[in-house]
Amino acid sequence: MTKKINAYFGISKSNRIHFDKEIKILIKCLQKYGIDLLVFVDKYDFKIEQEKEMMEVAFKEIDFCDLVIVELSKKAIGVGVEVGYAKAKNKPIIYIKKKDTAYSTTVGGSSDYKIEYSNLEELRLEMDEVLNALI
Asked: Where in the sequence is the domain holding 71, given as residue range(s)?
């Protein structure tokens, strides 16, 4: 039996509400390769005063995952911290963002793969290409 592959998905809580369709596409793409997607902001809900616990849990989840996918169409410091941690742990990092949004040179420079998309079909096709190269 082959080991299940797990992916960590980092996105800002404020941007998450605008990203339902894209996450459904990502889940379908990843499932074809036997990869489960953990959307951190969907699984956990921390209060402001729980910031240390939140980051400890995020780092443990990244440790458990085989690859990290981040969405940064809207910049988010927390997602950048997750990328830095994943890079230090030698996890493959996929950076996705909508075309015509700000590019994060820090995250781009730390990522192994970059996907810029203008529609859901383009996201699906580019994610398939990345996963074919990665798996």
From this structure: 5-134
Q: pLDDT (tens digit, 0 to 9) for every residue of the chain, 135 residues total?
A: 467 899 999 998 888 988 999 999 999 999 999 999 999 999 999 999 999 999 999 999 999 999 999 999 888 888 999 999 999 999 999 999 999 999 999 999 999 999 999 999 999 999 999 999 998
CA distance 11 to 41: 7
Specify the DSSP class assigned to residue 101.
Answer: S
Burial class (CB in 10 A: 0-12, 13-18, 19+), 17: exposed
Total domains present in the chain? 1
Query: What CATH number has the domain bearing residue 71?
Result: 3.40.50.450
Pinpoint the alpha helices (H) of 65-93: 77-88
φ/ψ of 42, rounded to 5, equals -85, -35
